[in-house]
Amino acid sequence: MHSKYKNMNIETLLQQGIGQALDNLYSISVEPSQVQLQGTKKEFAGDFTLVVFPFVKQARKAPEAVANEIGVQLKANLPEVADFNVVKGFLNISIADSYWVNFVNDISGNDGFGLKAVAADAKPVVIEYSSPNTNKPLHLGHIRNNLLGWSVSELLKADGQNVKRVNLVNDRGIHICKSMLAWLRFGNGETPESSGMKGDHLVGKYYVEFDKHYKSEIADLVANGMDEEEAKKEAPLMKEAQSMLKRWEEGDKEIRDLWEKMNGWVYAGFDETYRSLGVGFDKIYYESNTYLLGKELVQKGLDLGVLYRRDDGSVWCDLTGDGLDEKLLLRRDGTSVYMTQDLGTALLRHNDFDADRLVYVVGNEQDYHFKVLKLILGKLGFPWADKVYHLSYGMVELPNGKMKSREGTVVDADDLIADMEQTAEQMSLEHGKNDELSDDERKRLYHILALGALKYFILKVDPTKNMLFNPAESIDFNGNTGPFIQYTYARIRSIVRKSGQDVGFNIQNSEFKISDKEREIIKLLHSLPSVVEQAAQNFSPAMVANYAYDLAKTFNSFYQDTPILREENADIRSFRVALCDVVATAIRNTMTILGIEVPERM
Q1: String of DSSP letters for 216-237
Q2: How many domains, in total, are found in the chain?
Q3: Residue 197: CB partners within 8 Å, gap ≥ 6?
C-alpha cells in the first residue's frame, strides 16, 4: 500500500478502483475523472462518498444494491479501503488507518509540502498589480490591490507556475499635472526634507490643494451665471493643468524637470510603503515610457482601418459591433488616454517575457476598460489578445464609508500600518504573549502580527466581493484572524521544540491506530495540494486563507482533547509530535502564499 501512495493519492486510487468495479459488475466503462467523490458528511461514518445515481440506469439495479456491490468490490481489491456503508444511493468509504499513517510518514520532514516546483520550461504568467498614480500616497484600496497581487503571484508559484511580478506606474497625465501645478502655486518651495513629510504624502497634499482651489473657482464662475459643467471646463486652474500636460508631452524642459523632481519624492515614499507591506516586483514599467508605443499602435490601427479619426482630430475605435460603444484613443489635441498607454504596455510586456498570460489585478470599476483592451488588441492583429486576463476585485471600504483621494478622505496605507502595529502591541500586552522577548523582538513581533492581521483579513474574502475592513476585528487573537493562526503556529513550534524529537518520522506498525481527531487533521493535510491547485485555478487566495483557518481550528480542538508530550506510549507520542510538525509546515506554507510571516515564538 505504501508504495502505491508514492505515485497516486487516495482519491485517484478510489476512482480507478470504482471504475474497475463498474466494468467488472455492469460492463460500464468510465474514465477515472468521471467518478465524482466528495467528503463524507460528518453525521455518517466514512471519509469519501460516491453518489451512485449516475450509474443506476446502466446497472439496472436499485441505487442501494449498486452502492453495496461497488463497496464489496472495493473492500476486496483495495487494501486502503477498511470498510464501507450505504445510505440510499450514497456509498460512504472508510480509509484504513495505515494509509493515513503512511501519508504522515511520507510528508514528515518535507518543508515544501503542498507546494509544486516550477517547471524549467514554463512560460511566465505576468501579473501586474499596484499600478499607483504618482500624485498621492498609497491608501487602503492600494493595500488590497498589492496584497492580492502578491498573494496571487505566490499562489500560482505554489501551483508550479512561472510568475513574473510587474508594476505599471501611472507617472504622467492630467492628475500628475494637478499636483505639480498646485505645488508651484501654493507650495513655497516645500520639500520632503523641509517639511519632514514622506514624499508621496507631500505630493498628495498638493493634489488635495488643487481640488480645493479648483472647486472654489467653479463656485465663483457659477455664482457669476455660468453653467456648472461649463464652469468645470473653463476654470483657470483646470485650463492651466491641461496646458501643462500638453507642454509635458512636447518635452518642455522646465515642466519635465519639475515632474522628475516630484515623482522622485513619490517613488522614495512608495518604496518605503512596499517594504513595510512586504511586496515587490520583478520589473517596473512607467506610463511615460509606454504611451509613445501606444501612440504608434494607434497609428497602426489607423493604417489598418480598424480605428478612425474624427473631424476634430481625435482618434476612436468603433466597438458598437461588439456590443460596446466607441472608445477614445487620442484626444483632439493629440494627447493620449489610459487606453493608449495600456496598448503599448501590453505589447511591450508580451515581448519582454514571451508571456503565457498577462494578468491585470485591477478593481472591478475597470471591467469595461479591460474588455475594450482585449478587443482592440485583437483588432490590431495580435493573436495573444485572448491571453489578457483581468483579475477583477471588489472595493474595500471602512465602516464610515467610501474614500476619495481628491477630498483627502482616504485611509493612508502608512497610517493604517502604524495603527495596526499599535493595536498589535496593545493586544499582545493584554494577553501576556511576549514576556520572554527582548524589546527588539517585541517590536518585530508587533509588526508581524499587524501585517498578519491586515493581510489575512483582506485576503480571506473572495477577491470578487466588496469588503468592509474593520481593523479592531482583524487583530483579535481568537476567531478567523491572522493572529489566531500565527499564535497556533507558535504554539505548535513550542511543542515540537519541547519534545526534543527529530523532525523526521517513520512508523512501520501496520496495526497502528489513530484517533478521530488525528484522522480529521490528516484528512485536512491530505487535501492541501488540491486546495492550492483549485485556488490557483480560481485566482483565489481566500480559499487558501480559509483552509489555513480550518487547519488551525482543527489542530486546536485536537490539542485541547489529546495528550501530546504527556502521552506515555512512545510510538503514539512520536506520531503526535510528527503530526504537529507537519501541521506547522502546512500552516507556514499556506500563510507564506498569503504573504504572511509566522513567528516561532509569541
Answers
A1: HHHHHHHHTT--HHHHHHH-HH
A2: 3
A3: 205
Tally: H helices and E strands in the chain: 22, 14
Instruction: Judge if 156 and 234 occupy the same domain.
Output: yes
Q: Are residues 583 and 447 in the same domain?
A: yes
CA dist 95 and 519 (Å) reads: 10
Task: Give CA separation, 362 vs 141, 165, 390, 467, in Å.
Answer: 10, 14, 7, 15
**256-276 b/e with 16+ CB inside 10 Å = b?**
eebbeebbebbbebbeebbeb
Residues 137 and 204 both lie in one domain: yes
- Classified as helix, coil or strand, 367 is helix
457: which 3 cell numbers?
483579513
Euclidean distance between CA atoms 401 and 323, whole angstroms? 34
Minimal CA–CA distance to 285: which of 353, 334, 336, 331?
A: 353
Q: Same domain for 520 and 379? A: no
| 370, 397, 424 - which closes a domain | 397
Contact yes or no for 460/494 (Cβ under 8 A): no
Write out the E strands in 331-479. Answer: 357-363, 388-393, 396-397, 467-468
CA dist 257 and 262 (Å) reads 9
pTM of this structure: 0.90
| Residue 458 near residue 596 (C-beta atoms within 8 A) | no
Taking alpha carbons only, the member of 218, 219, 207, 48 closest to residue 135 is 207
For residue 8 the three cell numbers come to: 497516486
Q: Which amino acid is at 70?
A: I
CATH number, domain with residue 204: 3.40.50.620
Residue where one domain finishes, among candidates 95, 116, 150: 95
Per the structure, the complete domain to which residue 8 belongs is given by 2-95
Compute φ and ψ for 163, nearest 5 degrees.
-115, 135
**DSSP secondary structure, 510-527, as one string:** TT----HHHHHHHHHHHH
Q: Cell 517594504: give the residue.
A: 275
Position 404 in a domain: no
Please report the pLDDT score of residue 251 as a whole number. Answer: 93
Residues whose CB falls within 8 Å of the CB of residue 42, separated by 6 or more in sequence, listed in order: none
Q: How many CA atoms lie within 13 A of 240 on its CB side?
A: 15
Q: What pLDDT score does 403 carry? A: 42
Q: How many residues does the chain have?
A: 602
Chunked into runs of 10 residues, the chain (602 residues) has average pLDDT values of 50 94 95 91 94 94 96 96 95 95 91 92 95 90 95 98 96 93 96 96 96 96 95 96 92 96 97 96 93 93 97 96 95 88 94 96 96 97 96 84 48 88 85 76 92 95 91 84 95 94 69 92 96 97 98 97 94 93 97 97 84
Cα→Cα distances 127→148, 150, 161, 167, 170, Å: 11, 9, 12, 8, 16
Domain shared by 441 and 525, yes or no: yes
Q: Given this model, what pLDDT does residue 400 score?
A: 63
The C-alpha atoms of residue 66 and residue 93 are separated, in whole angstroms, by 14
